[in-house]
Design a protein that fits this description.
This protein is of the alpha/beta class. It is 40% helix and 16% strand.
Length: 425
């Protein structure tokens, strides 16, 4: 069955034979078929819906969203990859050299503290300032690594996870890859919709993954009002595992309104990738003691720890203010706002309150991507980020110049034809 799903012989959503019927057809014990179905569920290939039987997952783990990418033509502009502006990233050589020199003086040994003291001190001070509840700290290899470890620490195959829709494509792939089910929660400019979250939790979601700021792909940012509404929902479901991804820390000038503190188990993760560079695979994770202890314990049995060399380099960059956060946030904000305003002038609805992306609803996603590619602009198809929300395209604005805005807006307006007058999510 797994090979058939991978080859496309069994289509997403296709019903599977009842276990007893299949056992009779194959001439095997029903327990054998039940064990096979259980293994397929754990591997994220199929799902079971009670009396409605089993079926191939609507989004099997074998269909990676990263494959839904557009090749940038020669001479074209890449607005699809989601990378930060290299010109706004700090030089890493001095910080790495200093960290290496410290490592020469005090070599890291097995059994040493896996978290650099300076990085922990800097991170805890800023988390405190942002109102994140007190909790132990650990370090992971980026946001996605943290999210995977937290989910694995608490959930089991078959459990449901509430996810943003539209949301980060890597998370939408990760959840089914862990054998978990996704329940979509609509998003608008102010963050996840509280009513959608309530429905997902009442439908059995055991965890909720939310992006606080610079939401990918929409640029949404959780406001104080929305945070109160979402916390009220979570307060009614205190057993929910809450995971907050604040990857926009350092590139966004909008305040954080954390949701943590009303559920028993929670985690907040901050990655260095957007502010300091994607190759710095360092993210600080805080959470309740049980969650952090489980993450640390499982990490010890795998990679052991995140390189102290990288942690010390990030701590040095952070302490010395290698990134002018205000200037970076303003630079991205100016490019984003200029494009959103230019599109509005041309009658095109667009979204992007924070971060590096602009989300444009379109009536025909494939056609819009193709027409923009023909015009020399490579953008990301919304299918990489959607579960059930309407079609759209994502434009990464990080490298746009002032001279790019008008031609790009003209190209998008021509590609959208006509622009929808509806909201996403």
């Amino acid at each position: 069955m797994e090979r058939a799903v991978g080859a496309g012989a069994l289509a997403p959503g296709q019903p599977l034979p009842p276990m007893r019927e299949l056992a009779t057809r194959l001439g095997v014990n029903p327990n054998t078929v039940a064990a096979a179905y259980r293994t397929l569920r754990e591997r994220g290939v199929i799902e079971t819906a009670g009396r409605r039987g089993s079926r191939v997952r609507a989004k099997p783990a074998t269909t990676g969203r990263e494959e839904l990418r557009v090749e940038v033509p020669a001479g074209g502009r890449d607005l699809a990859s989601g990378n930060p502006d290299p010109a706004l990233l700090p030089h890493l050589a001095p910080a790495l050299a200093t960290a290496a020199q410290e490592g020469d003086r005090r070599p890291v040994r097995y059994g040493d503290d896996p978290v650099d003291a300076d990085l922990a001190r800097l991170a805890r001070a800023e988390l405190d300032a942002d109102g994140v509840p007190e909790g132990p700290l650990t370090v992971t290899s980026g946001s996605l690594d943290a999210i995977e470890r937290v989910l694995s620490a608490h959930l089991r195959p078959g459990d449901a996870v509430a996810v943003e829709d539209p949301g980060w494509g890597s998370v939408l792939d990760l959840v089914p890859a862990l054998g978990l089910r996704t329940l979509p929660v609509g998003v608008d400019d102010d963050g996840p919709r509280a009513d959608d979250l309530r429905r997902a939790l009442e439908s059995g979601a055991r965890a909720f993954i939310v992006t606080d700021r610079a939401q990918n792909p929409t640029g949404a940012c959780v406001t104080a009002t929305r945070a109160r509404a979402v916390r009220a929902v979570l307060r009614d479901h205190p057993q929910t595992l809450l995971i907050e991804d604040d990857h926009g820390h350092g590139i966004v000038d909008l305040p954080l309104h954390p949701l943590a503190g009303v559920t028993r188990h929670w985690a907040v993760v901050r990655s260095a990738s957007k502010a300091y560079g994607p190759d710095l695979r360092v993210a600080v994770l805080t959470g309740d003691p049980v969650t952090v202890d489980r993450v640390r314990g499982r990490q010890r049995l795998g990679p052991g720890w995140v390189s102290l060399l990288l942690q010390r380099a990030v701590a040095r960059l952070w302490a010395e203010g290698a990134v002018d956060r205000v200037a970076v946030a303003r630079a991205y904000g100016a490019r984003r706002d200029a494009l959103v305003d230019a599109l509005a002038d041309r009658g095109v609805v667009a979204h992007g309150r924070s971060g590096m992306n602009v989300w444009v609803p379109v009536p025909d996603e494939t056609g819009a991507v193709a027409r923009l590619l023909q015009a020399g602009w490579a953008v990301a198809p919304g299918a990489r980020f959607r579960v059930g929300s309407p079609q759209a395209i994502r434009l990464t604005i990080s490298t746009l110049t002032e001279d790019d805005i008008a031609p790009l807006a003209d190209a998008v307006a021509a590609a959208v034809r006509p622009s929808p007058a509806r909201v996403y999510g």
